Amino acid sequence: MASPSVAVTSFPAEAVPQAPEDPLFGLMAAYRADTSPDKVDLGIGAYRDNSGKPWVLPVVKKAETIIHDDPTANHEYLPIAGLASFTSKAAELILGADSPAIAENRTISIQTISGTGAVHLGALFLAKFYHGNRQIYFSNPTWANHNQIFSNVNFATTTYPYFDKQSRGLDFSGMIGAIEAAPNNSVILLHACAHNPTGVDPTQEQWAKIADVIRKKRHLPFFDCAYQGFASGDLARDAGAVRYFVEQGFELLIAQSFAKNFGLYGERAGCFHFVAAPQKDTAATADTVSRVKSQLYFLQRSEISNPPIFGARVASTVLNDAALFSEWEENLRTMAGRIQSMRTALREKLEALGTPGTWNHITDQIGMFSFTGLTEAQVQKLRSDFHVYMTKNGRISMAGLNTNNVEYFAKSVDAVVRSA
């Protein structure tokens, strides 16, 4: 019998180079492998309670019980656009139940694979159909996955200034200047609240100025909202920027995640919204909505066919029940309040130690993440000498701090800063 020929791959290294390891998941692996009892995980963006454990929201447990006990529940496919009782309430949550965009039927809402899937669906739609300046502007820095998602659909990316390293706050003049200098009809991605990774948000007055410039330049706003209710504990406040833009008559896109504010990380519940601008000719508006909806449905069908059901059912159960919704708001205040208390504790301990530098930015920033201002070398020393794990750009997840480790972390930072 003839011997088999030597196989030759169709995917040589020059065609398929080795991809770099995702730095965040690599950091998680290193943390898990560390055997030190003092190790501190400040990398992953997931809420932890004061014991450092994952927290299943009490209202989510109640919703799960209701679903489990429902004799009509089954595992049939959802429609292409998802669970309507979920997507309709998701739209009300981000836009406001009294939003003119909802009342005038100018919105399209499609269930997605969490916020990442919503960003991807929006990116794919823009890549296929956007006829403006085919370039999206991200804040510098932004969520690392933004660039990868748009690059994967061959949509050009660039950045606008955002973080001021000196003040550790917003570089507002740089941001406005770049948006104003961008070619007309560019796409501008904006973090609705609790900016990831800096924790720095524009003020209401600054949002109004941003809207003015975007209107003047005829740019298309694309909001990414991953932390509504989790940032301040107030759902309406955290949606303020999006609602302002809608009130101002913008056409816009929204990616909405329910991972953080419901603790549904692994259930991948999200929503993509398209909001059409109001027109004097209501028939023209209806035509725009109809055409966009048809193409979004077509893209969804070819991408995932139908979205997953369980996380959407959990969120829908809560969003459609007044008592459960009220309890959810209380759960949100619990999470946001603990994060805020850790910000206060960390700043107080660093200032009590006399750690060189200023630390007011720790409490000035908001949400899950804080840009500490630590250098990459200092971050590495924290990891090697003190078993503290955080991303190399100095971003920490405030959820990883608790009353048991915040003093240890503060003393570790103090030692590293002094040694530099």
Automatic annotation (TrEMBL):
<dbReference type="InterPro" id="IPR015421">
    <property type="entry name" value="PyrdxlP-dep_Trfase_major"/>
</dbReference>
<dbReference type="InterPro" id="IPR000796">
    <property type="entry name" value="Asp_trans"/>
</dbReference>
<dbReference type="InterPro" id="IPR004838">
    <property type="entry name" value="NHTrfase_class1_PyrdxlP-BS"/>
</dbReference>
<dbReference type="InterPro" id="IPR004839">
    <property type="entry name" value="Aminotransferase_I/II_large"/>
</dbReference>
<dbReference type="GO" id="GO:0004069">
    <property type="term" value="F:L-aspartate:2-oxoglutarate aminotransferase activity"/>
</dbReference>
<keyword id="KW-0808">Transferase</keyword>
<keyword id="KW-0032">Aminotransferase</keyword>
<comment type="subunit">
    <text>Homodimer.</text>
</comment>
<keyword id="KW-0663">Pyridoxal phosphate</keyword>
<protein>
    <recommendedName>
        <fullName>Aspartate aminotransferase</fullName>
        <ecNumber>2.6.1.1</ecNumber>
    </recommendedName>
</protein>
<feature type="domain" description="Aminotransferase class I/classII large">
    <location>
        <begin position="38"/>
        <end position="412"/>
    </location>
</feature>
<comment type="similarity">
    <text>Belongs to the class-I pyridoxal-phosphate-dependent aminotransferase family.</text>
</comment>
<dbReference type="GO" id="GO:0030170">
    <property type="term" value="F:pyridoxal phosphate binding"/>
</dbReference>
<dbReference type="InterPro" id="IPR015422">
    <property type="entry name" value="PyrdxlP-dep_Trfase_small"/>
</dbReference>
<dbReference type="InterPro" id="IPR015424">
    <property type="entry name" value="PyrdxlP-dep_Trfase"/>
</dbReference>
<dbReference type="GO" id="GO:0005829">
    <property type="term" value="C:cytosol"/>
</dbReference>
<dbReference type="Pfam" id="PF00155">
    <property type="entry name" value="Aminotran_1_2"/>
</dbReference>
<dbReference type="GO" id="GO:0006532">
    <property type="term" value="P:aspartate biosynthetic process"/>
</dbReference>
